[in-house]
Amino acid sequence: MNKYNIGQIFFITFIFLSIFIMYQLLKPFGMVIFFALVFYVVLSPLFKKAIGKSYGKEDKISMIKRHTLALLFSLTSLIIFLVPTSLLLYTIIVQLIDISNIGIKYFMNLDFNSILNNDRLRELLSMLPVEISAAEILRRIQDSLLSNLTSVSSYLTQNVAGILKGTGKFVSSFIFMMFSLFFFFVDGEYLKEQVSSLIPIEKKYLDRLFKQASEGIRGIIFGNLFTGIFQGICAFIVYSIFGVTNSLTFALLTIIASFMPIIGTTIIWIPLGVLFIINGEILRAIIFLVVSWFFITIPDNFVRPLLLGNRIELHPLFIFFAILGGVLFFGLSGIILGPLTFILFFEIMRMYNEERLFSDKEEKKRAVNNSVRIRRVNSYKRHHRQNRPNRNNI
């Protein structure tokens, strides 16, 4: 093994070791940096408009203006987003605990005699090929439901305690995120150039990937998340008007269901309408279903395309499974990282196909040029032989 090979092995080992150490150093702050980057990508167009002609200038006044606006944008955006989100999450957990406790009380006070004396139930049980004790079945169902509801209630109660205990961690993450977002606003372009210089990809393709990633993040936020929030607000209003218990919780479930293709929010409000029918409120159920369809589901058909624009060229089915798989693989950040991975994959494949087609065209062009050159040479040789004087005639 010569000195060149030893040096090459050492260099490659050093690179991988450095990458591993950098990963371990940044791993505790990965989520903080990622969401700060998402905020920066979404708000950077507005930030550039706020700076105006001073953007990109290095004079003292422009620098002071940039730093002041960066601090203002960082603090305001995080407070507006994180504080309501935290309060909403806490409220939803408390409401889920209330729902579990109501279910526990209901099944504990369930009147078995009224159920056992139901003629329809007796008729159904008599049709079965084996003799079954209805009282025993109901008792087992009651025990199972009470056990599950108690487990859910205790689990949620422990989570509320965990949220309260994690207040310090939340505050520290908030500070680190604001710190990162501030420097993204101040030196975002410089950081982008530094990262670009380390990636061994041609600049025109790298710019396309950066642009596609930025448009993809904005599309995911504006097109899907904001559409879901809009539908959730509409759902909360409709549920509150019709007296749905714990309407805020069901509104959040509506937001989550808005990411599902085809069925979407109907998976939430149709069962609620069925509950009205079971309770004997048929007219109320019909009005509720019509109003929910008109004010919750229909807006999705024009709000999402309006916010999404041409940013994401992915089928809703891909988006749904990308979000679902992203959450399972990456956690909370998978809501964005999942679809973003699909977006970049399709863009890379498009670039590869464009480069391959370009290479094929160049190859065909060279082949045609070679063919033309050969024909010209052959034509010249034939012409030279025909015009060469015959020695016998001299």
From TrEMBL:
Keywords of the record: Membrane, Transmembrane, Transmembrane helix
Membrane topology per record: Multi-pass membrane protein
InterPro entries tied to this protein: AI-2E-like (IPR002549)
Localisation per UniProt entry: Membrane
GO cellular component entries: membrane
Annotated TM spans: 7-23, 29-47, 68-93, 170-186, 220-242, 248-270, 282-298, 318-346
Family under the similarity heading: Belongs to the autoinducer-2 exporter (AI-2E) (TC 2.A.86) family.
Protein name: Putative exported protein
Source species: Brachyspira pilosicoli (strain ATCC BAA-1826 / 95/1000)
